[in-house]
Write a structure and sequence with these properties.
Blueprint lengths: L2 E8 L18 E9 L8 E6 L2 E13 L4 E8 L7 H9 L4 E4 L2
Parallel strand pairs: 1-5
Antiparallel strand pairs: 1-2, 2-6, 3-4, 4-5
Length: 104
Amino acid sequence: MAHLVEVSLRLPARPKLKSPAFPYGVADIRFAKQVELETLPKVGELFDMSAASLTFPCKVLQRNWDEHKNVMVLACEYGGSSRISNEDYLTILEAKDWTARPLL
C-alpha cells in the first residue's frame, strides 16, 4: 500500500555556487515535494528521491504528522552527508518538481 508523504529536503551549503533562482544560497531554505512511497522510511534510513532526471539518496532525520495537510512529513538531508556535486546541487535547486520554502 502506497503512503503519501511530503519530503522536506535540506541541501548542504555551497557558498561558492550560486543559482539565478537562489542567488544567496540555500542555508535557510527547505525544498518540499509530495510523493507516494511503498513503505515509510524510519529515522536514519535512506531512500531514493528524484529532481528532474536526477535520482539521489535522502536520509530521514525526523518524521512528523501534519494535521493541516493530513500527511506525514519526512525531514531529510541529501544523501546523509555534507557532500554534493555542483551538477546535482544545481539540478535540485532549479527542479520544477520541488517547492522552495524559507524557514523564517
